[in-house]
Amino acid sequence: MRAYNFSAGPSMLFEETLKETRDNMLSYKDSGLCVAEMSHRSKEYSEIQTEFIVTLRELMNIPDEYAVLLLQGGASQQFDAVPLNLAKKGKADYVITGHWSERAYSQALPYGDIAAVASSKDATFTYIPELPPSVFRDGTDYVHITTNNTIYGTRFTKLPDVKSPLVADASSNILSEVTDVTKFGVIYAGAQKNIGPAGLTVVIIRKDLITKDLPGCPKMLNYSTQADADSLFNTPPCMAIYMSMLNLRQLKKLGGVPAIQKFNQEKAALLYDFIDNSGFYKNNVNKRDRSLMNIPFLSPNGDLDKKFIKESAAQGLLTLAGHKTVGGMRASIYNAMPLEGIKKLIEFMKKFELENK
Fold first, then answer.
1. What whole-number distance in Å separates Cα of residue 64 and Cα of residue 43?
2. CA atoms of 20 and 13, how far apart (whole Å)
């Protein structure tokens, strides 16, 4: 039986992705090899990586003036790579809207004049702060935001108006809704939420921001290293890229990002409406800023939260515990979460409420 995995990551993959991976596990296209065994210089693997990049460009409408890099190290490695590559004058602004944006900011601090220009920490990150142009400093190398906050369940519904290149950690909402790539200098994302399995990190960067000779930047963190080598400077995470390619293929088949955005809005509205009208559960996020991907909620007390998590898992509704820093529950409902999973969760929530009022 397939469980419904509400984990914030690694998340559910499309069933078709898993089935095709299974069917080609022992021999991909009669090669006699699993993709995990192939040389990254082989013709077969080259076709996989090319299809991934071509499909991602099509799904996100990525212009030719942007490079697509397939890296390792997760978004956490990009917290250092971004300032090392972009902070040429040593000056950048960060907007703090949750745990991961705080991490990005703290890792950037050693690289220059790095400022936290706005934060929603005063209300436990339950809203996105107002960001008029006057918030941002003149002469910065870039402005950094986290477009969706996995732990606290908020998202940017309006991008800030900035003069410097906008850099975004989009790990938990990339491909979930239509994004105008041209509004950004850099978009980076760990794969393990909406793209595919953990191990792959995607960086979409405007080519004019790529610099070859960066003093103090390790070679492996220099974007030009991988751009010049077509992301093959060292062995890439071949199996993760293969499964991600299959996931993108399935997303395209479903109608692309506009179609999945509509589906995600339907799923999120169903769950938010139930929580808001239950009288038993609550979501503390400012309604304007609510995430489509990560929905935290609470029962009347901590003991009931623990009971909910235990009993829901027994029903095949897995990984609903909230992050350790906030407690409660969290339903992460990424692209591959079917509508049936939301309905099953709500059905369980109704039953749990009746039994524990």
1. 24
2. 12
Q: Is 121 an active-site residue?
A: no
User: H or E segment at 200?
Assistant: none
Q: What is the pTM of this model?
A: 0.97
Query: pLDDT class for 166, splitting at 50, 70, 90?
Result: very high
- Active site (annotated) includes residue 193: yes
The stretch 49-54 carries a mean pLDDT of: 98
Q: Which is the catalytic residue, given 80, 93, 169, 289?
A: 169
Q: Which residue is listed with tokens 């490695």? A: 77
Domain 255-356 -> CATH class: alpha beta
What pLDDT band is residue 324 in, cutting at 50, 70 and 90? Answer: confident
Active-site pick, 193, 267, 289, 305: 193
Q: How far is CA 266 from CA 169, 180, 226, 343, 347, in A?
A: 24, 22, 39, 12, 17
**Cα–Cα–Cα angle for 170, 175, 177, nearest 5°?**
95
Q: Is the pLDDT at 1 greater than 80, yes or no? A: no
Task: Look up the CATH architecture of domain 15-253.
Answer: 3-Layer(aba) Sandwich (3.40)
Q: Which of 100, 141, 267, 289 does the annotation list as catalytic?
A: 100
* Phi, psi (degrees; rounded to nearest 5) at 239: -65, -40
Place of tokens 């099509």: 58
- C-alpha distance from residue 273 to each of 265, 270, 282, 342, 350 (Å): 12, 5, 11, 12, 13
Q: Which residues, in sequence order, are bridge partners of residue 167?
A: 144, 186
Task: State yes or no: is 100 an active-site residue.
Answer: yes
**Distance spanning both ends of the chain, measured CA to CA:** 31
Domain boundaries, the chain: 15-253, 255-356
Tokens of 312: 């829901």
- CA dihedral (238, 244, 97, 302) positive or negative: negative
